[in-house]
Amino acid sequence: MKELRADARRNREQILRAAHLAFLEQGPEAPLDQIAERAGVGNATLYRHFPTRMDLIRCVALDHMAQVAALASGSLRSAPTARQALTAFATQVVERGVVAMLPILGGRVETDPQFRPARAELLEAMEALVAAARAEGALRAEVGAADLVMFLAVLTRPLPTVSARLNDVVRERMLTALLDGLRPIEATPLPGEPISADRITADLSAARP
Fold it and tell me: Which of 114, 131, 156 finishes a domain?
């Protein structure tokens, strides 16, 4: 693919980000016109970059795989300990939401010639992180790279009809609980106060039109 002009590259990045959010909320069948509107571009611009829905799904999936691999490698390289690397990695992928759609989108693009090399790079980076955490005693021996990806994917999916703010609170508490659950000792206090049933009910009520 030839190098894009700055404005075209910006449009492409905006479309990928908008598609990521739309797929996260509505699944891979999210309306393309809504994605274009969310990206701040016209339908023609979207189709110029991604002629078909599968082209867009493919690019989102490959982009997510590359991001996860880079975060795993970068965290292991820069953190003082493997435990800190694992925590930094999990926190960043959850904040970005880049693992949430991999189990869904990956199955749609596995026949693409770029899928297997991208998956191999992702697994290599994840296995290195997992191996380092195990060797340090920061990760249970029975938890593998695929386990970690799936745990984080489930954790990252937004709760339907719940506000973004409450989603963030729940996600932060779940991530802390998950990270502690990956090791047998030294549990960390969960952030914030316990979430009450009244709060969930009030949040759901506020979200209704």
Answer: 156
